[in-house]
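Re: the request from the purification team.
They wanted to know what the chain is likely to look like in 3D before they choose a buffer screen. I agreed to run a prediction and write the result into the notebook, where they can find it.
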Amino acid sequence: MRWRKSSYSSANGGECVEVADGVPGLVPVRDSKDPSGAVVVFPMAAWVPFIAALKG
């Protein structure tokens, strides 16, 4: 998987959320400060409303 840092993560090392691209139908999410730690996987159908709720 190719991980990228969320544009909403701060530049000072805190709140570092990464998402992985290239996984059809899924959105893997991890804490970039612990790349070998747990990965939470959202179905795409749940990710879109989740992000919309966070922005709202």
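For the purification team: The radius of gyration is 11 Å.
Please add any questions underneath this entry.
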